[in-house]
Amino acid sequence: MTTILVPYHQDERLLDGEISVAADIDVRSQVRDGDVWRHMAGVCSATAAAVSPVVAAGRVPVVVSGDCLVAGGTVAGVQVAGVDPAVVWFDAHGDVHTLQTSTSGYLGGLALRLLNGAHPERYADVIGLRPVPAERTVLVDARDLDPAEIEYLAGSATRRIPVPEVSADTVPSGPLVLHVDVDVIDSGAVPGLRYPAPDGPSADAVLAACARLFATDRVVAFDVACPWSRTEDEGQRDIRKELLSRLTALATH
Question: pLDDT tens digit string along 87-114?
């Protein structure tokens, strides 16, 4: 296992310690100017460059970041290594907005749709990502959807399943990039989330579902997003650290 820390939330470099994980590689974008899209592209491109040699060496990179947009860089890195993965996306939200449908303007709400090929001139084309077809994408949980996302998913080839149904038989065949936004876990168990969603599954349920996928030996990269706000509360920090420890440990089994 190789742990890659990407301490960014969109184009913002996070402070040391906001994501408490022992990293083998700390990704830093070399992009210094431009708008938020250019900065995000720099982060994703740097992530892809870190992921690719790890996958090519036959190891599973664990990419830990501050938001879901980094997942495109993880997938791009897997593709550069010569692997064509499907994506299993754990999230409390759909992340399938476009610039036209988003009412908040929060770019993290576009993350999965960008991975599937939306706005390629701003994202996929810039970071060297071959968009993953919707039929090769599974959205897990997504209990907090906006009306536009509900409408899109009703007609999309992207399948949506609850956490307990995750298994080798309910995800696409072949290699997998497993993405987990920690807000898929019930918000009462993960303090300080930027967009908390109540009434979700327990951490144990999410970890067990991920373990079922790792048991297939088909997970080629594990992408973990931690979209939480900065805190000085030691109790909250300890909860986050323990969760990350349990998640990253999945890739060692």
Answer: 999 999 999 999 999 999 999 999 999 9
178: number of Cβ within 10 Å: 29
Measured in whole angstroms, how far is the alpha carbon of residue 77 from the centre of its chain? 14
pLDDT in tens, 156-199: 999 999 999 999 999 999 999 999 999 999 999 999 999 999 99
Cα–Cα nearest to 49, from 37, 61, 35: 61
Eight-class DSSP state of 148 = H
pLDDT in tens, 219-228: 999 999 999 9
CA 182 from chain centre, in angstroms, equals: 9
- Farthest-apart Cα atoms in the chain, separation: 45
Q: What's the mean per-residue pLDDT of the chain?
A: 97
CA proximity to 73, closest of 179, 193, 229: 179
Backbone angles phi, psi at 130, to 5 degrees: -90, 115
State whether residue 115 is helix, strand or coil.
helix
- Phi first, then psi: give them for residue 89, nearest 5 degrees: -115, 105
Task: For the beta carbon of residue 204, count every other beta carbon within 10 angstroms.
Answer: 11
Please count the residues of the chain: 253
Question: Strands (DSSP E) along 112-236, which ranges?
Answer: 137-144, 159-161, 176-181, 219-225
Any idea what DSSP says for residue 133? P
Could you give the domains of the chain? 2-252 (3.40.800.10)
